[in-house]
Amino acid sequence: MLFNSLSYLIFFPCVVFLYYITPWQKVRNLLLLAASYYFYMCWDPRFILLMLGCTVITYFDAIFIDIAKREEAAHVEQEKRHTGKATLYITVTLVFMFSVLAWFKYANFLTESIVAIASSVGIPISIPKLNVALPVGISFFTFQSLSYDIDVYRGTTKAEKNFLRYALFVSFFPQLVAGPIERSNNLLKQFEDKHAFRSEQVVRGMMLMLWGFFMKIVIADRVAVIVDQVYNYHTAYEGLIPMIATALFAIQIYCDFNGYTTIAIGSAEVMGFHLMKNFEQPYLSTSVAEFWRRWHISLTSWFRDYIYFPLGGSRCAKWKKYRNIMIVFLISGLWHGANWTYVVWGGLNGAMQVIGDLFRPIRKKITAALKVNPDAFGVQLMKGILTFILVDFAWTFFRAATINEAFAIIRSWFAVFNPWVLFDGTLYTLGLNMTDFWLMVLSILVLLGVDVMHARGISIRQSLLKQPVLVRWAVYYAAILAILVFGVYGPGYNAANFIYFQF
Amino acid sequence: MNKAKEILKLILKCIVFLAGLAVLLVLCMSVLSFKHEDGSLPMRNYYDLPGDTVDVLMVGSSHIGMNVNTKQLWDEYGIAAYKCWGSTQPIWNSYYYLNECLKTQTPKVIVVDVHGATFSYEYSDYVLQTKNLMGMKFSANKIEAVKTSAPKESWADLLLELPAYHYRYGELTEQDFEYFPWNHHPEMKELSNASMDIVYPFQMIDISKTEGIEPLEEKEERYLRKIIDLCNERGIPLELVVAPYQLSEGELKRYRAAAEIAEEYSTVHFTDFNETYMDYGISTAKDYVDPGHLNKTGVPKYTRAIADILMKYQLPDRRTDPNHIWNLTKEKEAVPVYSLEYQFEGDGIQRYLDTGVRLYENPLNTWTLLTEFEVPSYDDENGVVLACYDETEDNYHGLLIRTNENHHLIIAFSSYANFDAGEVREGQVIRLGVIKNHDSIEVFLNGKRLNGTKLGGFSGYEGTLLLAAQVQPDGKLFRFSMPIIHDLIVYDSCLKADEAALWHARILPEEKIETVSNGADSDEGRLFRLTETYRGDGIEKYVNTGIRLFEDPEDSWTVLARISPKIESGDTVYFSDFLEDPKHYTGLLVRRVEDGLLNIMYGGGLGVNIGIPEDKDSVIAVVKKQSAYEIYLNGKCVMDWNESFADPYEGELYIGCQIDSRGEKFRYSGTTVYNLEVADEALGPEEIAAWDPEPLKEAKKKKGSSVSYTLEAGFAGNGKDRALDTGVRLYDVPDKDWSMHFLIDLSEGSSGTIASCFAEEPDHYRGFAFRMTDPDTYGLILGSEYVSITSNPGRTMVVDIIKQEFTYRVYVDGVFVQEVSGRCSAYNGSLLLCAERMDNGSLFRFSNQKIRKLNIVSNALSEEELKEAYGSDTNYR
């Protein structure tokens, strides 16, 4: 079930209504679990068993770890010696969960890569392609349940005894298929509390949902028309057009993913749950490292906590720090998809941060010598634009179907200098007519405005709630009608999937 | 208690919010909804009719929608009929439309075109689903209709509707804002092919030997029976009809199955007009726009056929009911108070035309004046095109359109309110519209609004609208001028601005200026005398002498003529007054059968061949004394008195052509007749020998309008409604010289007409057309000849067409391709870019071609001149 589908527009209010009229917390959780499982089964009912399996294993693993830890604690006190049982449990679970992920997501990628490497050194081998369907959101719920087990192992969270609550934590439908990847110490305990109906909270949640729908349906899906046209027929375009398409892809993926997350956070908020922030105006960053602190925060922090820090983080020799960054970003690339394009994309993002760090002293010296105020608006703007260009350059690999295609597109940017395409109507031949094109530009400007306001600490929702009812309603009506009229949906367009579902 | 209050308040708030949202959504949907005239609108507008105002309800596909004219049924029979139809309407949609219609009306008879019952699919395609469902209001009937018409995955879109049409915000027109919930459209709206004047000749498939029956598909039969049951239930007689069209054998067999079903019910009549269409005069040669639909000559015939089957129901004449909705909402049609019949040309000396229209009789009159004219020559000092202008000093007012001494076009309303439309060339074609609404004036020039103003108060003016002259305060005419007025229409009401702007002139015939003297010639004893040499062009040129030689077979007369032995083109008739009926040849026919041999038919069908010199003119005399004939060649008798009895014949003596048995002219000839006289008696040998006049002078060759033209910027059509009227009349004089230079973009996906100045007259196609036929093949119609050219690889193509009289040379990208001779007669239409013109003046065949350059000069350029003028566009080799 997609958020931008009629089914969700019926499903969600029903769940919310039943949720609030149910007086008992246990029944509420049971209702949410049933709703979440139904939500997941709408894609492919078979995979509910997979999710249930992962839930059962990580649930019991956490309990065993907890017991082992307690035993260990007793042993340490008595004999000053570790039993190592907890480590064994967590290792077994990690191996199992990654095997599941590898089987469903990376098996074909692995075999194809082996075949490609072997044939490149002259050894012809053939491995039959596995007919494995990719369960929706597998990377999200496996990472979420793993983080819980690791936290229990580390002792930063307690093992949840209530299976119902834990199962709901793994499967909570707003964030089930595309995040944010929640942590147990934020979400799990919220299932213990009873959330009273508060109309302001419902309205706030719905406002978020509307903004999410706007980003997804009005911006991302409209921008996608141009991006798809240029990338699918990339040999037909040269110069500025593929550059513009790549810049637009940055907008598309941001609005697509952030749109989903925002609807998720909004949906949860309507029911009184607070999910973690996943984006913080990433394109207003002034360095690639900052971009990654603001983009897909729940994943980045997962990698930071469970890979980067254990590897030594940045409190070690410089080369180790750079190695750690590269490892994290290569894995992050692979997490996004079983394709070398994602690996290159991850590698590029890592490399840009390493290079940025290496050149920092030189940059500082130059700034000091030129007596430039690094906080001046102009400097910040230049840095922001440069960061966008670097990040966008990497997005080329993310969007292209193959590495060769990505290189072909990059070559095509410089094949010809054709600024006239901006003025001679070529822009209206890329799938959007003039009206739709300018609607796209206008909606991107709205997006920029909202991001700038958020960056300055202005809460639009808060300001709006202070307005008289007529103003508030006028804004709500305008937003709803804008989505319904200007949204890219209906016959002719199939409700577009969210890009991040595949990861 | 407080909590309950709060909950109640909250629920109330939600309801108000949702109600507000619903209102806004309804408004949005009213604007964005599809306004398909071939589907959703007929149903949508039906709801606006008051109850029981429709006597005949028709449902079905375009076979009823486009072929039957309900306005004609009303105008001719007083029948109140309504077509609730949809494009390619499946029979189940007919059923649900019918169900919906019968909620508010009880018609006296229902007519269903059963074309939709012969389909063999489960669902029609999505666009047709929208057309046949979206006009219906939300109801249980509509839900059923949607479930029947479309697969499950489309149900939500078709019921909610907004998902299907929300994207239309980019294509809204004025019409989209006329369907708010408070707008009603109960007036009679007619959409059919009643004004479609395209002709598509074809032959029906021979089905005379087709035997047997093919059962209808289960779903189709089920819904046909449902329709019959519904009508029976409501006690309304049902007429099942099949429109005449090119039906296949399979369809015929299915119609037979439908007829068998109809036979099971006594209340149902089945009429297949494919069996009887010829009885109604419907012809596949001229009454169809395509093999499935009739055109403007076919629709009235089929409508009368439908009226025939309705006659038995003795329907009331609703025209006499003043309270009938269609009488109450009858739109006052703009009726012209004056309409030019022929093109008018002033001679600058004394010719003028008084239209009799008093534009300013009441100074607050409203009117619309539309005209197209050629700018008078620079030599014409007066330059008056038309005038209804009071020249009383200090009280100048009215309407005066003229060119001034600086060759600017002036549209004057008073001494202070006049518009200068800028410099104009002599011969330039100007399309002008003036709307006067009480004291405000709007002027439209060549499709664009030029200006508007308010007129101050002034007294009335009794003068009439004059063409090519003005009138002084004392009533004397002056300022005779030489404009050529192609068209002029005056309405006594204000047309809409876009109607005035987008108006196109009709192609009126040229005014016939008598070239023959009448019977009362001052020459004694001469019934007729040619006043200038006749030289035929083999196309449409001829002279009608008006003399009936055989009106009384006992008459005596002599025809004297000096003829040239040379014939340049066309047929070989010198003159004729001859009944071309093989059974009853009657009259006189003089023609050449081969070089040096003349054939003369006379009296009741006798003929004689006479040898004539091939190198010099000959003088022929045919003498008739009652029923005896004598023939002279160059003063010598070559056939002595020969008797031949002729029947009386009403035909007239024509020079240069013949009349066929139906009275139509044919055998246009390229002969030359220097002199021709008809004496009212049988002249003697001396008089005939003495008759040797000097050859008469030839008529001055007509110059025609100017063709000089340069496209100021590139022009691209949009394939929908954008075209450029250059105003250049390439064929007002068919043998004038010109050279056209095109530079066009070979962009992919473009197709259709690039340029046209083409007479779309089915029996008489002629002129110039430049069309793209395939991605790299282009067709040129040059006069009457077709030339195919191929584009070279590249992004542009340069095409030059050089016309010298009737010979055309064609160059593509600077390379000579072909020379053809394409004779054709005059055509007064102008050159259009990216569209073509029907013979009623309206435009069609819009294309999305891109023309970067177009240059026309009024002489035939040589290759050197081409190179010099356009060498920068291509390499002339």
Q: What's the quick description here?
A:
The complex is a heterodimer of chains A (503) and B (877). By secondary structure, chain A is mainly α.
Describe this structure in words.
The complex is a heterodimer of chains A (503) and B (877). Chain A has 503 residues and is mainly α. Chain A folds into 3 domains: 6-197, no CATH class; 198-275 and 402-503, no CATH class; 284-393, no CATH class. Chain A has helices spanning 6-21, 25-41, 48-79, 85-120, 138-154, 163-171, 184-187, 199-232, 240-270, 288-294, 297-311, 318-336, 340-358, 360-369, 377-399, 403-413, 434-455, 460-465, 469-486. In chain A, helix 8 (199-232) crosses helix 17 and helix 9 (240-270) crosses helix 15. Chain B has 4 domains: 25-325, Rossmann fold; 336-501, Sandwich (Jelly Rolls); 526-690, Jelly Rolls; 709-870, Jelly Rolls (Sandwich). In chain B, strands 8, 9, 11, 16, 17, 18 and 22 form a 7-stranded antiparallel β-sheet that branches. In chain B, strands 23, 24, 26, 31, 32, 33 and 37 form a 7-stranded antiparallel β-sheet that branches. In chain B, strands 38, 39, 41, 46, 47, 48 and 52 form a 7-stranded antiparallel β-sheet that branches. In chain B, helix 5 (91-101) packs antiparallel against helix 7 (140-149) and helix 5 (91-101) runs parallel beside helix 10. Chain B is globular, with a radius of gyration of 34 Å. The chains are: A mainly alpha (503), B alpha+beta (877).
